[in-house]
Amino acid sequence: MSERSRYLPRRSCLATPGSSEKFLEKAPTVPADMTFLDLEDAVAPNEKVAARAKVVHAIKTLDWGDRVMCVRVNAWDTVWTYGDVIEVVSGAGERLDEIMLPKVQDAAQVVALDLLLTQIEKNVGLPVGHIGIEAQIETARGLINVEEICAASPRMETIVFGPADFAASIEMPVLTGGVAIPEYPGDHFNYVFSKILMAGRANGLQVIDGPFLKVRDLDELREFAQRTRVLGYDGKWALTPDQAMVLNEVYSPTQEQFDKAWDILDKYHQATEGDHKGAVMYGDEMIDEASAKMANKFVDRGTRAGLTRSTEN
Ligand code: GLV
Ligand code: MG
User: Fold this and answer.
1) Which of 211, 226, 250 represents a domain boundary (last residue)?
2) How many independent structural domains does the chain possess?
3) Which atom belonging to ligand 1 lies closest to the Cα atom of 213?
4) Domain span at 264
């Protein structure tokens, strides 16, 4: 299923505390593209071990539909990582698509997870390579090494940012993670977003923005999420069902963009195949092969989001 989930949409990635039966039961009803059951920071230290069985039970017994199913384990600098991975992957079976590894510092940490996953898959009879890896960048060292992290394993499907831990790691003087800083003239994370995006795309990964912690302010979320949507990110974490709904919209092309992309492709194909021209006018714009490539991205993303063309030429 790693192959299954690699290209599925991840516009909204719902965080669900793995220790809470109430939240676990509710999660499948939330229309998020991806759900991750958390064993890390949303779970208190004395609940960590017990949460593993709750997460396994939820994956096996609830109906998760087609969504990407992920579990966030604890980072390698804790005592829980190997136990989390062994118990969850052995117990959850095929429906688990990927493991999210937080606070990844370098490629070796991804390789260590890859090796452990291979042994578990062989032991429990899952196809080797079945479980994908989503690496979370949330430290200065992780960001510096993001290129090698993205290239560290064929299991890598996704690279995701963790703004709260990251702010702490770089000693940014903020008390709320992943929100705008009005005193800063511009986007204080632009460099970070861009660096993660380049590393992810250079390795064919999906690239995801982290949480927006002002959960009641949906307008501000919508505005803040534009920063990574416009750069080209695939989606963002959702902490509530309402956030998921906003993000599904923000990270989908609009109907107008989707239709325009199809129109450009029609015009371009007619020009190249019918009229043997490489560049042609579309309204008052000149379009060529690169325009067709851009349009194809909108068509792919819109199709994944369930859009259909509303106008035919
Ligand atoms: C998420 O894990 C974050 O640290 O922002
Ligand atoms: Mg974090």
Assistant:
1) 250
2) 2
3) 5
4) 255-304
The predicted model gives 2-14 an average pLDDT of: 90
Task: Measure the CA–CA gap between 200 and 147, rounded to whole angstroms.
Answer: 8
Q: Are residues 75 and 194 in the same domain?
A: yes
Residues, CB-to-ion distance under 5 Å, ligand 2: 138, 162, 165
Amino acid 1: pLDDT: 47
Cβ–Cβ under 8 Å, residues 235 and 247: yes
pLDDT of residue 278: 86
Chain segment 45-87, per-residue pLDDT in tens:
999 999 999 999 999 999 999 999 999 999 999 999 999 999 9
Specify if 311 maps to a domain: no
User: Do 164 and 266 reside in the same domain of the chain?
Assistant: no
**Cα(242)–Cα(249) distance, integer angstroms:** 11
Ligand 1 centre to CA of 161 (Å) is 7
| Inside any domain, residue 275 | yes
Residue 126 DSSP symbol: P
- Region 261-277 average pLDDT: 90
Ligand 1 centroid distance, CA of 103 (Å) = 9
Same-domain status, 227 and 259: no
Q: Indicate if the pLDDT at residue 2 is higher than 90.
A: no
Strand, coil or helix: 35: strand
